[in-house]
Amino acid sequence: MPTMARIIGAIATSHTPTIGFARDRKLSNDPVWRPIFEGCKPIRQWLDDRKPDVLLTIYNDHITSFFFDHYSAFALGVGETYLPADEGGGARNILPLAGHAPLARGLGTSLMADEFDLSFFRDKPLDHGCFSPLSMLADAGQAWPWKILPLQVGVLQFPIPTARRCYRLGQALRRAIAAYPEDLKVAIVATGGLSHQVHGERCGFNNTAWDHEFMDRLEADPESLTRLTHADYAERGGMEGSEIIMWLIMRGAMGEKINRLHGSYYLPSMTAIATAVWEDAVPHEHVGNFVDVQLAGAERLEGTYPYTLERSAKGHRLNRFLHDFVLPEQRERFRTDEAATLAAAGLTAEEQDLVKRRDWRGLIHYGAIFFVLEKLAAVVGVSNLHVYAAMRGQSLEEFQQTRNAAIQYGVSR
Ligand code: FE
Q1: 1 pLDDT above the threshold of 60
Q2: What is the 21 CA–ligand 1 centroid distance (Å)?
Q3: CA-CA 20 to 30 A from 268: which of 5, 46, 178, 391?
Q4: How far apart are CA 104 and CA 151, in angstroms?
């Protein structure tokens, strides 16, 4: 049987911004920070021994890269690389972390087919929720030993996903990884919590007894935790401690029975910090390759190019450039000096040429989405009908003869 993508274990590490700063200041021997460094050591050892290719890291952003202009429940990173975010005091001086874009696209497609409606992001820096624990698990200043798949969970603006939904998403992730046709060892990393509250008069709330109960139930009876409401979590572990529901995604991705190889708990100030490693009692196995049933057959439709995550990744630079025509100043810049604007945008020679020649069909073939082409059309002063005709290889007149009404329109007023 071929060895394919599989989950080799799960890691839990709480996140706080200060853990990352302690790492940067090399405070591993400071009595305050030492227990956290010590708690991470067995995880590092496990990573060294098991050598995962990818850390699928479940975290929440703290209103750094994800804001309320578009807040989503489950956002999967499909980018090629991730930078540390500036959270208000300057970004940490750490190396960018490579994503595993093909795996992200594969799992994203698989999860959507499994009726988990994710959002997808790229070009967003990751805040301490992700980078602070990860930087404790690798050597500072060295190339990261693994790639990352960030799964951002929107837990800060209610309504947020239920604990049950998180657990079910984890189970779907397990199915998706088991059906991904590449030899990859994946470790699931859950960050966040444990008990804490950082706002209001109840600020400073902790509950060590609950933290231990949560960890035990997570291991032995996770279903029981899926029956708790957000208010139940807030009552037991503090309002911000409710982010612990993210650990249920990790638990759902593991098998029914798991073995804890390591566990630590420490409460230095506001947030209870735990670290843990688990492995499945019964190893995770490949179950046959995922087939995209939803789009299977679409390839038979001549002249049709579904805008998949693959096309989106290839056309991203070009689509970003053309999308910027929603800005009046970008339209003006382009009209004034097209060649310079194209060059300044960092487009490849091929991309620049496609735009210069208004090669509408070529642009679609390359990976542009139609809805940025109509923006370009408006800027260069042609109607949508020109674009439609050109894509079909017809003159405007020929194309108009195929319509019931000979009108022209576009997105410009
Ligand atoms: Fe947090």
Answers
A1: no
A2: 15
A3: 46
A4: 10
Q: What is the Å distance from ligand 1's center to 54 Cα?
A: 22
How far apart, in whole angstroms, are the C-alpha atoms of residue 16 and residue 150?
17
CA 255 to chain centre: 23
Q: For 81-100, how does the pLDDT look when each residue is reduced to its tens digit (9 = 90+)? A: 999 999 999 999 999 999 99
User: Once rounded to an integer, what is the mean pLDDT over residues 206-216?
Assistant: 97
* H or E element at residue 189: strand 185-191
How would residue 407 be classed by pLDDT, with cut points 50, 70 and 90?
A: confident
Answer whether 279's CB lies under 8 Å from 261's CB: yes
What spacing in Å lies between the alpha carbon of 349 and ligand 1's midpoint? 43
Active-site residues: which are they? 128, 196
What structural domains does the chain harbor?
6-280 (3.40.830.10), 300-400 (1.10.700.10)
As a whole number of angstroms, the longest Cα–Cα distance in the chain is: 80
Q: Is 381 left (phi over 0), alpha (psi -120 to 50) or beta?
A: left
Q: 184 CA to middle of ligand 1, Å?
A: 29
